[in-house]
Specification:
Layout (H helix, E strand, L loop, with lengths): L2 E12 L2 E13 L4 E5 L6 H8 L8 E9 L2 E2 L5 H7 L4 E4 L3 H4 L6 H12 L4 H14 L5 H4 L9 H13 L5 E5 L7 H18 L2 E6 L2 H7 L2 E6 L2 E7 H6 L4 H8 L57 H10 L13
Protein name: ABC transporter ATP-binding protein
Keywords: ATP-binding, Cell membrane, Membrane, Nucleotide-binding, Transport
Main location: membrane
């Protein structure tokens, strides 16, 4: 495994109390694998990804657990040593390229600056590399576009520039935080094809942060489902879609429009709202919204496998009741 996150906890002290943004998250990433981390907004996906790169270090933050990259615990590194890993060995594409790119510098200058910060090369060599990178991500006329400012690019082209910057130093791991947000479906498909191509051609390991299960189905090898700061299910792509084990995953899948469902029914929805991370429930965090809640759910669910007290037999029965993964099945009796 090239990246291993073990029992990661991230909390922030605020005026209202301590926010437990990430609570006991563990996952691993193999070389050349695409891992999708999915869940609702506020579930802790981005905080988890940013913590891997040390971007959540702040006076009001408390971080425990391990983030091992190539056998080295990144949480033990000081800022100087971490900067040698960040961008060079692990790169990140942020959610909004317009706010990630400096609006007063040409995109070529920004790529050149990143390359020269990590490599002992001349400005000319770095600029040539910038043109090569823009070419590799499908930006037309890269020799001319390298002199343009971010506002002169469309949203999809800005995202391609961010991918080019992330690839500038040939990293081993790429973290993509909602890379297709606010892009139209045609551009989304182009960006996903590009990430998939880079994964196959370079053996690039990718952590894909998203709430869009359509994106996940397109390119992921494995899926980690997050809810209220915890991973509630970690499965292969096939199992996540065809044999999901957690009621929250059922809810996410049940809310997707399906072309193979000819029944005149409304899309299912997950009732209620996620719990406050200032004072999360001691038991199953999804219990208050779960149609299958029973007495055992008031206790902390098991840490191994999916975090759910339903027995394997109950899960199979509930999913079999309905073709839409049992969302309309009756609650389990204690």
């Amino acid at each position: 495994m090239i990246l291993e996150v073990e029992d990661l906890h991230v909390s922030f002290a605020t005026d209202g109390g301590v926010v437990k943004a990430v609570d006991g998250v563990s996952f691993s990433l193999a070389a050349g694998e695409i891992l999708a981390i999915v869940g609702e907004s506020g579930s802790g996906k981005s905080v988890t990804a940013q913590t891997v790169l040390g971007l959540t270090r702040a006076p009001n933050a408390t971080i425990t657990g391990a983030v091992r990259f190539d056998g080295r615990d990144l949480t033990d590194l000081d800022d100087r040593d971490l900067r040698q890993v960040r961008g060079d060995r692990i790169a990140m594409i942020f959610q909004d390229p317009m706010t990630s790119l400096n609006p007063v510098y040409r995109v070529g200058e920004q790529i050149v600056e990143m390359i020269r910060a990590h490599r002992d090369v001349s400005k000319r060599e770095a600029r040539e590399r910038a043109v090569e990178l823009l070419t590799s991500v499908g930006i037309p006329n890269p020799e001319r576009r390298v002199h343009h400012y971010p506002h002169e690019f469309s949203g999809g082209m800005r995202q391609r520039v961010m991918i080019a910057m992330a690839l500038a130093l040939d990293p081993d791991v790429l973290i993509a935080d909602e890379p297709t947000t606010a892009l139209d479906v045609t551009v989304q498909a182009q960006i996903l094809r590009l990430l998939d191509q880079l994964n196959r051609e370079r053996g690039l390991a990718v952590v894909l942060i998203t709430h869009d299960l359509g994106v996940v189905a397109e390119i992921a090898d494995r899926v980690a489902v997050m809810y209220a700061g915890q991973i509630v299910e970690d499965a292969t792509l096939e199992n996540a879609f065809y044999d999901p084990r957690h009621p929250y995953t059922w809810g996410l899948l049940g809310s997707i429009a399906r072309l193979d469902d000819d029944r005149p029914t409304r899309l299912a929805q997950i009732a209620g709202s996620p719990p406050s991370l200032l004072s999360p429930p001691t038991g199953c965090r999804f219990a208050a919204r779960c149609p299958h809640e029973f007495a055992k759910c008031s206790e902390p669910p098991p840490l191994d496998g999916d975090r759910c007290w339903l027995s394997p037999e109950d899960k199979r029965r509930l999913r079999d009741v309905d073709g839409r993964i049992g969302l309309r099945a009756p609650a389990v009796t204690p």
